[in-house]
Design a protein that fits this description.
about 90 residues, alpha+beta, four-stranded antiparallel beta sheet, about 25% strand
């Protein structure tokens, strides 16, 4: 298992559009993806679960990834968390 904490840079937080992009990317990996924010852990492959986190700008989010291709998933998904979306 690998994990890393990222800061959300998007000024509007992690809303519907970036969440959808994240879930689509997470779903391409065969490993388990968990996202943790403010002590709450959810399945990173579920749009609804991701939205329940209510991730705001400048908040820290931890990715926990376990299984096949975990390093590649951590790199790819970490970049999506720190991108600035419109």
């Amino acid at each position: 298992m690998v994990s890393k904490t990222f800061t959300i840079l998007n000024p509007t937080g992690f809303h519907v559009r970036p969440s959808k992009t994240f879930v689509q990317a997470a779903s391409t990996f065969p490993c388990k993806v968990n996202v943790i924010n403010k002590g709450k852990k959810v399945n990173g492959k579920s749009s609804l679960s991701m939205l329940t986190l209510g991730i705001a700008a400048n908040e820290e989010v931890t990715l926990e990834i376990d299984g096949e291709q975990e390093e590649q998933a951590l790199e790819t998904l970490g970049k999506l968390l720190t991108e600035i979306h419109e």
